[in-house]
Design goal:
Length: 164
């Protein structure tokens, strides 16, 4: 199976090989063995090249959202895939809660200038801290969360007005 994801605005092609529990994922630079260890209702653990890695996921009728190692990816079931940490033309001015969780820190306020990759806030979900970063350059227009807030998936947390 072939996948294409956008990571920081750059496309990465992946080949996923194998069936059943063990899969091999290859890109131009990396080959990794992925073996599921445990899977709960919204979290799981994989062994990637022998190293255990926890991840969070959420599936809706049209999308699968995955948070792993501080990265957040959204897979459109029609085939489009993009990273929530992507930059450039693929960026999104809205930062939404990827999963239910607790806001630990907010790094920006309205009026602040941001660039792609700048940290906006940290959300804890299933004992994992996820840094949500700006996807585009612009000015923060809205901040709809504060430290300690519990958030539901899809809640608009930060809105950025794109730089002209």
């Amino acid at each position: 199976m072939k996948l294409e994801i956008f990571h920081r605005g750059e496309p990465i092609e992946l080949d996923v090989e194998g069936s059943g529990a063990a899969r091999t994922v290859r890109s131009a630079e990396v080959t990794s063995q992925i073996v599921p260890i445990a899977l709960g209702t919204s979290a799981g653990t994989l062994r990637i090249d022998g190293r255990p890695v926890r991840f969070l996921y959420e599936r809706t009728a049209r999308r699968v959202r995955v948070a792993v190692g501080g990265e957040y990816f959204e897979f459109d079931l029609s085939g489009e895939t993009r990273s929530k940490r992507a930059g450039g033309a693929h960026g999104n001015p809205e930062t939404r809660a990827p999963m239910p969780g607790k806001v630990l820190q907010v790094h920006v306020e309205p009026g602040r200038e941001v660039n792609p990759g700048d940290p906006l806030l940290i959300v804890e979900a299933m004992k994992m801290e996820n840094v949500l970063s700006a996807e585009i350059a612009g000015t923060v227009k809205e901040v709809n969360a504060k430290a300690g807030d519990m958030v539901e998936p899809g809640k608009l947390l930060i809105l950025i007005v794109p730089k002209a």
